[in-house]
Every structure is written in structure tokens, then in C-alpha cells.
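Please fill in the sequence for the structure shown.

STRUCTURE ENCODING:
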């Protein structure tokens, strides 16, 4: 499941695991962790592409690089 957390930031929710993806997700500096973008790419492959595009087009474009 995907939750929009604000401008250009989403939360991937998988059971009890939550992964924040977007700028400032890893602290004070902009961060797009490779593993998190990989998770988004996997979600897109499993049918979540429309959901991610609606929530955050910028992250969808970045995650597409990992497909």
C-alpha cells in the first residue's frame, strides 16, 4: 500500500514495515535511497504504477529508472 506523505514524499506500507521515500526522508539532506526506489519499482511492476503516478509523479519517474 502507498500513502502520500506530502509533496514529493510517499510511505510504502507492507505489513508492519514502513519505508519513507522522498526528499529529506533520511534526515536533513535530500535522500532517495536506492533500496526504497527499488521497492517502489517493484510495486510499480506489481500493478501500483497508477497509484504512484497519482500520488507523486516525480517519484514515479525516479522509480522507473529502477524497473
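FILLED IN BY: designer on duty
SEQUENCE:
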Amino acid at each position: 500500500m502507498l500513502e502520500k506523505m506530502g509533496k514529493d514524499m510517499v510511505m510504502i506500507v507492507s505489513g508492519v514495515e514502513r519505508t519513507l521515500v522522498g526528499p529529506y526522508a533520511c534526515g536533513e539532506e535530500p535522500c532517495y535511497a536506492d533500496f526504497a526506489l527499488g521497492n517502489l519499482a517493484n510495486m510499480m511492476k506489481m500493478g501500483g504504477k497508477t497509484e504512484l503516478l497519482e500520488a507523486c509523479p516525480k517519484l514515479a519517474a525516479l522509480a522507473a529508472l529502477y524497473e
